[in-house]
Amino acid sequence: MHTEAIDPPGIDWQRVSPKFVTVRVVQWALGNLMAVALLSLPLLFVLLGWWRWPPLWLAIALPAVTVVAALWRLALIPRQVRAIGYAERDDDLLVRTGIFFQRTMAVPYGRMQYVDVAVGPVERSLGLCTVKLHTASPGTNAHIPGLPAEEGARLREQLAARGEARLAGL
After folding, report:
1. What are the record keywords, sorted (predicted)?
2. Which CATH number belongs to the domain containing residue 118 in this structure?
3. Which of 3, 155, 162, 169 lies at a C-alpha separation of 20 to 30 Å from 110?
4. Cα–Cα distance between 65 and 40 in angstroms, integer?
5. Which pLDDT does position 4 carry in this prediction?
6. DSSP one-letter code for 97
7. CA pair distance 108, 130, nearest whole angstrom
8. Do 95 and 122 lie in a common domain?
9. pTM of the entire structure?
10. Which domain holds residue 90?
């Protein structure tokens, strides 16, 4: 992962699993298949003669534009997954996301209220999980998707221990 202008210097980012691309593609497929099917209904109704409006060109353009936009988003998925990273530092955890709209968040260990590990059916089949960090402020809640299950469990225990130590003032 290359360093961007908003990243602190000298950070060794840990990446999420490349298998997470599969999870994102499945999510993409489910959402876009429903959207294209729904937006194709006017075309079907026009072709069957049930509707006279919209004109045929518009009924064709609506699902076609949706398909083109969906394919563009599909092409971005591998790059978006490569942009996700995290780094454990002495006092906080850095979480980085985004290609066009980049975000680097520092979550102080002492602010963490609890660390949650979640897994969906596709993630489970690939041995992945999502680590969710909860703080007192909803704006600083962060998550790291696409981690191998073992790394997620390790990170949960490590972050919880560091959070308790910071809260205790050690």
Report:
1. Membrane, Transmembrane, Transmembrane helix
2. 2.30.29.30
3. 3
4. 11
5. 60
6. E
7. 19
8. yes
9. 0.85
10. 84-167
| Cβ neighbour number for residue 112 with a 10 Å cutoff | 24
What is the pLDDT, as a whole number, of residue 82? 96
Instruction: Name the 3-class secondary structure at 15.
Output: strand
Q: How far apart are the first and last CA of the chain?
A: 33
Q: Which of 32, 53, 81 is a domain's end point?
A: 81
Q: Whose CA is closest to 132, among 162, 164, 93?
A: 93
**Secondary structure element (H or E) that encloses residue 110, with its range:** none
Q: Mind listing the pLDDT tens digit of every residue in the chain (170 residues)? A: 454 668 888 899 999 999 999 999 999 999 999 999 999 999 999 999 999 888 999 999 999 999 999 999 999 999 999 999 999 999 999 999 999 999 999 999 988 888 999 999 999 999 999 999 988 777 777 899 999 999 999 999 999 888 887 765 54
- How, if at all, do strands 92-97 and 112-118 pair? unpaired
3 state SS of 3: coil
Q: How far apart are CA 83 and CA 24, in angstroms?
A: 13
